Amino acid sequence: MGLKFREDKDLSVLALASHGDLERLARVLTHDESDGEKRRAQELLDDPAFKKAQESGDLTGAWQSIAAEMQAYGGDTIVNAVRSLVKGHTGVVYREILADICSHLKLKIQPTDNIKGLEDQLLIELIRSQKDKFTAEDLTRILGEAAKGVGLKESLAQDIDFDALALRIATDARMSYLASLVVPAIASAALPFLARLSVPALLAVVAPRVGGALVPGLNVVAVASTLTLLTSPAYRVTLPAVLEVIRIRRVVLMATIDAESAA
Amino acid sequence: MTVSANTLFKVDPTDLTAEILAGFESGEMELLSNSGVVYKNGRIFKHLGLIPVDPSEFASAEQLLQVGQQVKAAQAAALTATAVSTVVVVAVVVAATAYLAIKINKIQSTVDALSEQVDLLDQQDVLKQVSEYFGAVKSAQELLNSRAPQEQIARLALARIDRLAELRQQTLAYVRGLLLLMATNPQGKEPYTRRLRFVSDILDLVPAALAVERELCLVAGMPELAQGRHDQAAPQFRSELASFRAWHVAECRKLALGDGGFPDVLAQSRKSLESLWESPVHAILLDGVKAMVRSKFVNTREHAELRESSAGNTAQRENDRTS
């Protein structure tokens, strides 16, 4: 029996994601990057639609299976631990997963119907939570590396501090996209498991600022941060998965902006 | 396509003088692809020789028409003559093979499916006109390929030109209305899918239909009308295509923001729509040799050399005349 996707408008963006982006998300959901092992609770790799898409080398036809796996990881940890025993279990919608993460982080999130607005708030709060470890120059450098990697260097004509970034994330699609690229690297200062979502060029900029936090095996609890609240097993899956969805949404939105200017 | 290369003819590239090439490029001259007649300022300027289409050129044109990809081998040494050849072969294949018929049959089945969902009489009438339009295109294509004497073809073509343009206008107006309806009232998944396919199929076919309309005007001995129709219809088509693209972008944006519907329909149509936006066939059919001159297919350096040589030839002719 395959995974059952629960109708979820906030995850429909995955229908427009590329094979590469879906592959990254599927990897987060199915493998523990600390040891490369398959996650015990995952069902995606056995899902018939996913297997078929994987064999064809194109995961775009399996976006619902991937979304369903993500929904199944959401919610209560104990439920997740035994979910493979409960056949036909359908998970929680993306918005709840996102709200759950924000609530555990004790983030001051303003309720809104706008899913991108909620995600932007999470990005802003994750960046702010690491404000004490990074100077404005560091932030500008990290954003500069990200912008260079995706051909948006002109978006960063001047230095940017944390407050200016927070403001621009909410109002500028390009900045929101760049933030989705740098947040895993910045937050990995407290949560090393997020480092796997970042490109090496960004980690190279981040590493000197966070000392040994990126060294595998280091006790992350030693890093004083509210983010350590997210070290429980379920969040080690849902947080990176949510950050991947956030990035994918911004990739798709940027593509619509490019298409608009081409039309 | 069922017609083989040896049943098709194209103009002899060796007859394409620099003056004619420059005339095509400037829009001063028009070519009736299937008879090789070149018109200048509304009058017959020259009859170019016809030679059989080479199988490799036919395959190249087929590939271009079917998958929208230019075959690199088509870039031969005499580059601009090759470019003209490609344009002519594409136009001949569109006008003389089953290419159009297959596409028209596909549209007809979509029209039938749409008709079942439409209960308003006026909408059904419009759909009948859409069917009539593509029926008229098909019949114009048959006329162009008939072996009847040229005068008879010209007389019949003359009688059809206006109706064809009228039906084209109505069809494009319906596409416009449908896009508006899809944006404001998407209804269910099934109607949404059918309408999307319908609009996409129609806009894919219109440039080929315009090429037939243009040839019809030329065969009727009205090259200025052919030019006038093209000048009016090509921008209109591009405007409709741009509206469709803008609609599609808006739908994808809504989906990305968690506010859209029919994710599977949009995802499945994405590849074919991207081919539609960037179709090199449309550029060739709408702009003929000008499209080739502007496009990446033509080596700009060699083209510049040819222009220089063309300018040189013209100067030489001027000298010969005055001396």
Brief rundown of the structure:
The complex is a heterodimer of chains A (263) and B (323). Chain A has helices spanning 19-30, 48-56, 63-73, 77-82, 94-104, 115-128, 136-149, 162-171, 173-187, 200-206, 233-262; strands at residues 31-32, 37-38. Chain A has 263 residues and is mainly alpha-helical.
Give the beta-strand count of chain A: 2
Task: Please state roughly what percent of the residues of chain B sit in beta strands, choosing from under 5%, 5-15%, 15-25%, 25-35%, 35-45% or over 45%.
Answer: 5-15%
User: Strands of the largest sheet of chain A, in order across it?
Assistant: 1-2
Helix count from the secondary structure assignment of chain B: 12
Uncertain regions of chain B: pLDDT < 50 for 5+ in a row? 1-5, 70-79, 293-323
Describe what this molecule looks like in 3D.
Chain A has 263 residues and is mainly alpha-helical. Chain A is built from 11 helices and 2 strands, in the order H-E-E-H-H-H-H-H-H-H-H-H-H. A two-stranded antiparallel sheet of chain A has the order 1-2. In chain A, a hairpin with a 4-residue loop joins strand 1 and strand 2. In chain A, helix 6 runs antiparallel to helix 8 and helix 6 crosses helix 9. The longest helix of chain A has 30 residues. Chain B is globular. The N and C termini of chain B lie far apart (54 Å). In chain B, the strands form 2 sheets. Chain B has a 3-stranded antiparallel sheet with strand order 2-3-4. In chain B, strands 1-5 form a two-stranded antiparallel sheet. In chain B, helix 2 crosses helix 3 and helix 7 runs parallel beside helix 10. At the A-B interface, helix 11 of A face helix 8 and helix 9 of B.
